[in-house]
């Protein structure tokens, strides 16, 4: 069911029920008020009759009957009966005894002194009247014709009001729900046209303060991130294929040259050595591509407590094993009194990749192939800085070098794919860590890694 229909139904049900309860309460209160008012009229009628009949000697029963019948305020179907203490009818306003009364009723009046009840459709009041030690029971009954017709009128008005009210509520519910959800329908039709080719499409944010505006703004932000990540993937694929094409083209031409029958063994050997270099380059490239793809996952799988100095030493050992001409020295800025200051929660192999990449860059981009690693900490973070005295980085590239495949102009003569630093940054983000760079061209660079420790 559509939300618009749901809201309209719920709105109509709530307002309809309120209207029904309201109408019922009004009707009920009016009914009670009418009845009470009528009982009061009957009571004063009964008292007047008793006083005229019993107290005033000049008025006899026949005269009273005549007065009763001709009084202007006579009630519809009015009957007044007076009984003496032996329950004998002492006076009746009508000649026929059509008022319903029973011994029980008379006894109840004697007991309770005042009774309000019904006799068929008529209201009936009974009261005990005492004079000179004699107890008279007076019953007064009549039909509230005007009150009841007012009630019937009120009922009709309330019924009509209720039906019209419910119909109006349904119409208003449909209208307002449609109005409120109109922009959502517009979004749906706009969103359904978005494909990978038009990720630049944005929703109309209109009034940013209401929920619909906030939804559009959040959607637009998501679209921006999607667009960025699509862009990144596109440039990744184009860079990767470009990087692959160069060694593959070189391999092809080397193979073609080696097919020349006139080459001697030494020349063949030279070509094969070139082929081996290109294959090594291809392997290095595919390793870099794997590195960049692996941590692209949005969370780390194997988290454990990792001692950062252990990881740094492991990275140092592994790097020196594959590059024996590199020199890496590791120092502590100060002795950690609490080992928790250099323990972080994270994925050990991923963290090792970070330090291997940074140490390898430091050695690679400096003629003395020397990297100085310093381990330190502050209140919240473990800090590792990797320093070299190499070629340095142009200041305008400080941000760009962390983008995949970006390489500074001064580094182009040194082999590399521009992947390592972007991988480091991504891994550190997954660990809530950071990386900063300070560098001076021709003097050297210092990369600092910050990782939140467990203490
Ligand atoms: P690669 O070293 O394979 O090119 P990276 O992503 O590790 O890829 O580095 C990106 C770029 O940052 C490098 O091409 C280089 O221009 C610059 N760079 C990184 N580390 C250093 C460093 N220690 N000294 C000078 N330049 C560096």
UniProtKB/TrEMBL annotation:
<keyword id="KW-0418">Kinase</keyword>
<dbReference type="Pfam" id="PF00512">
    <property type="entry name" value="HisKA"/>
</dbReference>
<dbReference type="InterPro" id="IPR036097">
    <property type="entry name" value="HisK_dim/P_sf"/>
</dbReference>
<keyword id="KW-0067">ATP-binding</keyword>
<dbReference type="InterPro" id="IPR003661">
    <property type="entry name" value="HisK_dim/P_dom"/>
</dbReference>
<protein>
    <recommendedName>
        <fullName>histidine kinase</fullName>
        <ecNumber>2.7.13.3</ecNumber>
    </recommendedName>
</protein>
<keyword id="KW-0812">Transmembrane</keyword>
<keyword id="KW-0808">Transferase</keyword>
<keyword id="KW-1003">Cell membrane</keyword>
<dbReference type="Pfam" id="PF02518">
    <property type="entry name" value="HATPase_c"/>
</dbReference>
<keyword id="KW-0547">Nucleotide-binding</keyword>
<dbReference type="InterPro" id="IPR036890">
    <property type="entry name" value="HATPase_C_sf"/>
</dbReference>
<dbReference type="InterPro" id="IPR050398">
    <property type="entry name" value="HssS/ArlS-like"/>
</dbReference>
<feature type="domain" description="HAMP">
    <location>
        <begin position="178"/>
        <end position="231"/>
    </location>
</feature>
<dbReference type="GO" id="GO:0005524">
    <property type="term" value="F:ATP binding"/>
</dbReference>
<dbReference type="InterPro" id="IPR004358">
    <property type="entry name" value="Sig_transdc_His_kin-like_C"/>
</dbReference>
<dbReference type="InterPro" id="IPR003660">
    <property type="entry name" value="HAMP_dom"/>
</dbReference>
<dbReference type="GO" id="GO:0005886">
    <property type="term" value="C:plasma membrane"/>
</dbReference>
<keyword id="KW-0472">Membrane</keyword>
<feature type="transmembrane region" description="Helical">
    <location>
        <begin position="157"/>
        <end position="178"/>
    </location>
</feature>
<dbReference type="GO" id="GO:0000155">
    <property type="term" value="F:phosphorelay sensor kinase activity"/>
</dbReference>
<keyword id="KW-1133">Transmembrane helix</keyword>
<feature type="domain" description="Histidine kinase">
    <location>
        <begin position="239"/>
        <end position="455"/>
    </location>
</feature>
<dbReference type="InterPro" id="IPR005467">
    <property type="entry name" value="His_kinase_dom"/>
</dbReference>
<keyword id="KW-0597">Phosphoprotein</keyword>
<keyword id="KW-0902">Two-component regulatory system</keyword>
<feature type="transmembrane region" description="Helical">
    <location>
        <begin position="7"/>
        <end position="30"/>
    </location>
</feature>
<dbReference type="InterPro" id="IPR003594">
    <property type="entry name" value="HATPase_dom"/>
</dbReference>
<dbReference type="Pfam" id="PF00672">
    <property type="entry name" value="HAMP"/>
</dbReference>
């Amino acid at each position: 069911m559509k939300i618009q229909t749901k809201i309209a139904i719920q709105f109509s049900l709530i307002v309809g029920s309120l209207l029904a309860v309201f109408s019922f309460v009004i009707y009920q209160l009016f009914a009670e008020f009418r009845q009470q008012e009528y009982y009061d009229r009957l009571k004063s009628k009964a008292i007047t009759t008793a006083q005229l009949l019993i107290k005033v000697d000049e008025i006899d029963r026949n005269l009273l009957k005549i007065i009763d019948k001709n009084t202007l305020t006579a009630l519809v179907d009015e009957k007044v009966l007076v009984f003496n203490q032996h329950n004998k009818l002492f006076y009746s306003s009508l000649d026929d005894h059509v008022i319903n009364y029973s011994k029980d009723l008379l006894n109840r009046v004697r007991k309770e002194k005042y009774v309000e009840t019904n006799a068929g459709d008529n209201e009936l009041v009974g009261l005990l009247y005492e004079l000179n030690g004699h107890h008279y029971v007076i019953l007064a009954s009549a039909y509230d014709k005007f009150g009841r017709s007012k009630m019937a009128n009120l009922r009709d008005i309330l019924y009509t009001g209720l039906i019209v009210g419910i119909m109006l509520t349904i119409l208003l519910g449909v209208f307002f729900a449609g109005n409120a959800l109109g922009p959502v329908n517009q979004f749906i039709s706009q969103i359904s046209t978005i494909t990978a080719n038009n990720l630049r499409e944005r929703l109309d944010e209109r009034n940013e303060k209401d929920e619909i505006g906030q939804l559009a703004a959040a959607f637009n932000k998501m679209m921006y991130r999607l667009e960025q990540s699509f862009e990144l993937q596109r440039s990744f694929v184009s860079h990767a294929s470009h990087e692959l094409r160069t060694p593959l083209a070189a391999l092809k031409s080397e193979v073609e040259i080696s097919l020349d029958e006139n080459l001697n063994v030494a020349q063949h050997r030279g070509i094969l050595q070139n082929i081996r270099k290109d294959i090594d380059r291809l392997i290095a490239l595919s390793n870099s591509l794997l590195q960049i793809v692996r941590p692209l996952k949005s969370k780390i799988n194997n988290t454990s407590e990792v001692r950062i100095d252990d990881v740094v030493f492991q990275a140092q050992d592994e790097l020196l094993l594959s590059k024996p001409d590199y020199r890496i020295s590791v120092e502590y800025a100060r002795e950690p009194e609490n080992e928790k200051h250099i323990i972080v929660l994270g994925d050990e192999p991923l963290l090792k990749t970070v330090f291997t990449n940074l140490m390898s860059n430091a050695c690679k981009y400096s003629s003395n192939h020397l990297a100085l690693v310093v381990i330190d900490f502050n209140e919240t973070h473990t800090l590792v800085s990797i320093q070299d005295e190499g070629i340095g980085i142009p200041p305008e590239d400080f941000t760009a070098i962390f983008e995949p495949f970006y390489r500074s102009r001064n580094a182009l003569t040194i082999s590399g794919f521009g992947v390592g630093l972007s991988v480091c940054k991504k891994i550190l983000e997954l660990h809530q860590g950071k990386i900063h760079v300070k560098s001076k061209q021709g003097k050297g660079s210092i990369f600092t890694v910050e990782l939140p420790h467990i203490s």
